[in-house]
Amino acid sequence: MFTDLSMTVFSIFAQMSVGAFVVLGVVQVLARSRGGRSSEEIDRLTDPATYAVGVTLVLGLAASIFHLGTPMNAINVLRHLDASWLSREIAFGLGFAGLGFVFAATQYLKWGSPLLRQALAGLTALVGVGLVASMAMIYTTLEAVPAWNSWVTPVQFAITTLLLGSLAVGAAFMGTVMWRRRQMEQQGELPTTDARDLETITTSLKGIAVASILLLGAAFVVIPLHLNELSQGGATAVASAEVFSGAVFSLRLALVFLGAGLLGVLVYRFAARTHADPRPLAVVATVAFGLVFVGEFIGRWQFYESMTRIGM
Amino acid sequence: MAVTLGFYFDQTLCNGCKACQIACKDKHDTAIGVNWRRVAEYGGGTWQITGDTFSPNIFANYLTMACNHCDDAVCVDVCPTTAMHQREDGVVVVDDDLCVGCRYCEWSCPYSAPQYDAETGRMSKCDLCTDYREAGLDPACVAACPSRALDWGPIDELREQYGDVAGIAPLPDPSVTRPNLVIKPHHSAEPVGAATGAITNPREV
Q1: What is the pLDDT of residues B119-141, one digit of tens each?
Q2: Where do the domains of chain A lie, and which CATH numbers do they carry?
Q3: What radius of gyration, in Å, describes the C-alpha atoms of chain B?
């Protein structure tokens, strides 16, 4: 039970971190390609979210330690890179964390040219994708566990990565806006947000809303296909599908649907209108992220619960 | 190349007394819940219909299982620390100095051979009673069996003598890990993939 919790926290936080980093990269690239904004202006919007990625990644990596029976031997997990996907996962995880830290430091201190920093960010994102891919390989290659030994595992990991990453970035953008306005209020100023900043943010939020609705659709196609696959497998496969039923499973589906679907529509609508007060958009974007986070957390918990092995 | 060792199990002789399981537990003093050798009770059945009469047509058999020190030991492949390794004689063992207790080997094994010991924070498993064998004795499970259903030895010799059946229900298809195991099946044993029965003591195995 406790080991399941640490694996759930680790895998969800690590995938969300990779997803958010990739989405921030997409926002950067698109914002630059639209022109009219300097890289400093765009950085000012994305940097706080980038630093937040570091926090969630470190939280996830820290949680993974609690999964180990002998944490003192933790360094040994890098000894089998030529065969073990678990070794590779940790190598990619440390690589992503290390490169991400260097990138964040160069952003903060404005070291190197913007192009150099972009190249570093691109490399970091690639290693992050390697992290999610190696995580998926750990489970999908296990012939002994029918619920995991499926094409569904990498697809679901990819969906979770992008869905949580997108919505986390949306919530982080709006959090940054609200936090800056609050600082202005505390200094006795009228809270304002630069119109062009707001435009970049609402454009991003619109894209995030569309992405989350599409990913929700993909998730809701994959789930029945997975259940169908398990129902046609052997007795062990059928038994492992039992966890995907009942109130908790329904709650997970409902939360992801409400967060990514219903609130996704609201996020798009609020973002499409120019608001003097960005508060409603901030509230909806944050609640959407919260609901999907809890839904995906339950989903990952049940993923570990579905570990039923063939044989005896 | 050293001789590869394995187990032989005569299912037709086993009466499910579980002396092998207890002898193993006693010899290795394993913790509660850690059982390197376990005995499954496998059973099932249907109704035989004769005219208006339904009579039960049932079967039951026993299957004792420890580590099969597989040729394709998946636990060794997946272990991130290389603590799980295969010796020259094919015996798969854990190096306590390296093991991190991540339990990935436990997930990977369809025979439940690697088992987590919460007291040591490490994985533990059958080593085919290395110390007993070095002293010229049989492994504890083999020596304890009152019906002489268990044997061990070089797998080539066991296969020559007893055949090459290694996959009966509820075991996985032998192609998954290529176990060094030979079984003489009970007359009611079901083949892998055509199983109608189930393990009737799931909490014990």
Answers
A1: 999 999 999 999 999 999 999 99
A2: 2-305 (1.20.1630)
A3: 18
Cα three-residue angle B169-B39-B147, rounded to 5 degrees? 105
Which residues of chain A from 227 to 246 reach within 8 Å of chain B, CB to CB?
234-235
d(CA A72, CA A46) in angstroms, rounded, equals 37
| Dihedral over Cα of A169, A175, A178, A184: its sign | negative
ipTM of this predicted structure: 0.93
Token pair belonging to A38: 């300097």
3-state secondary structure chain B: CCCCEEEEEECCCCCCCCHHHHHHHHHHCCCCCCCCCEEEEEEEEEEEEECCEEEEEEEEEEEEECCCCCCCCHHHHHCCCCCEEECCCCCEEECCCCCCCCCHHHHHCCCCCCEEECCCCEEECCCCCHHHHHCCCCCHHHHHCCCCCEEEEEHHHHHHHHCCCCCECCCCCCCCCCCCEEEECCCCCCECCCCCCEECCCCCC
| Closest CB to A144 among B81, B109, B193 | B109
CA distances in angstroms from A228 to A88, A155, A217, A306, listed in the order given: 31, 16, 17, 15
Handedness of CA B170, B165, B182, B80 (dihedral sign): negative
SS3 A311: coil
| Among B193, B88, B102, residue whose Cα is nearest residue B130 | B88
Indicate the pLDDT class of residue A160, thresholds 50, 70 and 90.
very high
The count of CB pairs under 8 A between chains A and B is 114
**Nearest chain B Cα distance for residue A308, angstroms:** 9
8 A C-beta contact, residue A107 and residue A117: yes
pTM score > 0.90 for this model? yes
Closest residue on chain A to B64 (Cα):
A312
- The class (CATH top level) of B5-195 is alpha beta
Per-residue buried b or exposed e for A228-239, using 16+ beta carbons within 10 Å of the residue's own CB: ebbeebbbbbeb
Closest by CA to A226, choosing from A302, A126, A291, A293, is A302
- Any residues with CB less than 8 A from the CB of B72 and at least 6 apart, and which? B176, B177, B178
Give the mean pLDDT of chain A: 94
Interior/surface letters A36-74, b for 16+ CB within 10 angstroms, e for the rest: ebeeeebeebbbebbebbbebbeebbebbeebbbbeebb
